[in-house]
## 1
Amino acid sequence: MDELSAVIVPLQFGEAMYENLRRLKALNKQYTPVQINEELALPIYSETASLHSTEIPYRIEKVMFEHSPPSINPHLQLKEVIQGFIPQGLEHVLELIPTKWERLDDLILFPKEAFTESDWVDIIEEGIDFYEQIAQVLQARRVGRQQPIANDTIRSSQMELLLGDSGWVEVKDNGLFYGFDACKVMYSSGNVTERHRMGSLNAEDEIIVDAFAGIGYYSLPLLVHGKATHVHACELNPESIKALKWAAQKNNVSKSITIHEGNNQSTLPNLRGIADRVLLGLLPSSEAAWKPAISTLKEQGGSLHIHMNVEEKHIEQWTKDTILTCLNYAKSDGRDWFCTHQHLEKVKWYAPRVRHVVLDVSFSSSNSAS
């Protein structure tokens, strides 16, 4: 216990005085207020003349206080540390504190609108260690802010690093290691269920073609957990390729992955007739790769996992149209196939009334069926 200066008020004025002291930044929140008979003692940093104008009866004395137990609620912890930066008159910004964030390794990634309102500018500039304090209270070393995915062919990440000098992160999910530069490569934690689903499929002895491999989101689970024999990974983004090579080595499967660098419109035709299963994991649409992807399946058929953003009310019709389109592509390629299996997985809401879905569809030829 420590002896500190304290403002002592009747119990009925305790809450009001607590708020007064907090606004004046005089309240020492490292210690717990103490009830003494019918009065409440509030720990303060120092005596303050500003209190002389209050109508609440009080006196200042020395009191023994115990240290406050640390908060176990990260949202309360974040609010408490930010409160210390808020000047009188700007208390309304407390309602703008982010209520959600993503953790990647030791990087806290806030939503794109976090701390961007005009009132935050002066607060952050005057609070020299604003982001350092946030990182500390959330047990991280780096802080970033999400930005819209770049409108380019590789859907680059545009994450803004607010604290730290590197965006490289390493995460472990479902027993697999992924590493990537979050400033340059997109990573969606919301796709975790689909990554795990891929790992639960039986792909033993299969050859996989991943048309949009990225950092190995879906092909690594199939290779490691699904026991696939080999993955042919098509990828355009040099940063994703770097990350995929790192993950392949980290997960001890480098010899089971062949990376085909460049646009899959050029690389897929070189993989004709080798695949048992093809992954088409691009959003908002993978349709541009359907035709060359079908040509990579073996002559007797195989399976496609087609990712797409689809309006909820159109999902059923989209499923029928997609299967018919794929059959027509196969027919134009000289393959007499029919659909033997289909399953639709609703991964998550992508936008209001729009879902990220995955259509699993398997094809077989009449000869192989017989």
## 2
Amino acid sequence: MTRTNDNKRYILKILAAAAVALGTGALTGGPAQAAKLTPEKEELKFGFIKLTDMAPLAIAYEKGYFEDEGLFVTLEPQANWKVLLDRVIDGQLDGAHMLAGQPLGATIGFGTQAHVITPFSMDLNGNGITVSNEVWAKMKKHIPHKDGKPVHPIKADYLKPVVAEYKAAGKPFKMGMVFPVSTHNYELRYWLAAGGIHPGYYSKTDISGQIKADALLSVTPPPQMPATMEAGTIFGYCVGEPWNQQAVFKGIGVPVVTDYEIWKDNPEKVFGITKAFSEKYPNTTLALTKALIRAAMWLDANGDANRKEAVKILAKSEYVGADYEVIANSMTGTFEYEKGDKRPLPDFNVFFRYFATYPYLSDAVWYLTQMRRWGQIPEGKPDTWYHAIAKKVYRPDIYLKAAKMLVDEGKAAKADFPWDTDGYRAPQTEFIDGVAFDGRKPNEYLEKFPIGLKQNQVVVGAEVQG
């Protein structure tokens, strides 16, 4: 899937050169235009996983924003998150739609060691936790109802007796998530632990993540989640769309909570490139960031007026490849829980508003705290370490440089970007357990949780020491 076309490329180069040479906007009769970037590398291949939150890539491609920046892009779906990351690191892909934890995990050497950065956050929210019909029937008995419908948000407190029942029957309670450093892993763990269900630890010698676990979490690729649950291999999962709504449409499960309800306006995916790529091709990095910002703006423009068109694009087999109705269920301001229980959720998918595309350092710190909480970072670290890693990986400096160019070109409004932030959000309180997060104080944050490792604790064998 590519727009590389010799004639089109030649014409664009001529027009760009003419615009720079004239410098007065004479080609359009308008005001002077900002000088165009000259990308060092024009032909690029970007990877993605078939999820609705890859939308900025699809829109930047379909609307010609990449071409506007002199980039000729091929978009290529990947088999799973590990393959995607490995191919970015070894240069087969120039960049990719990534889990927020992937650049961080790679940079600190969890699993794969490589310095990966992100100049662009792709979206807020967008995930859900789904359970099988059998589990839902058991949970539902414990959930308060109003007007005949379950009261939301549904906490894991109501799953706890079900997990205990399975355990008593000698049946391990298994759930799926998409990757060890995925937002889904941390959101599922957060939700379970908030309800008193231990999701298990990692250690230096055991990377299953199931040490001391009440619920056993394992990796399943996103498109395979519904079928894996239907087969009875797992009893529930955390995944991005459209694979929660797919369970509703197929009648095999019920989404019980969204990540919007677990952590309101949480960052979800990022666009990842290697640090080496950003240094070798700085103009290309700025150009692709500009194109992605414009795509995100289009997705949220005019009160989400473009979402139906976006859904049609995403439904194509080369992108997500799910039915229009399934994708639309969560992309157009609603979310369906139990079959027929469709509720307004206008911020379930956010691509630009609330500064969604800005790569906040505090977001990086949150993911690092969860890696430490569950033992992926096996030993305690000082606060300064968290801040240093966040600054190595999340690059708001690149983002704001690209944003300024768009403002100078008249393609974006100055008010759309957080120019004065130091990269840290104000303390956030809208979590399902009410625990406040201040990105400036990661160790203080970790001390607040009844389940999870603290500063001096380590997992040795099957025990927590310290």
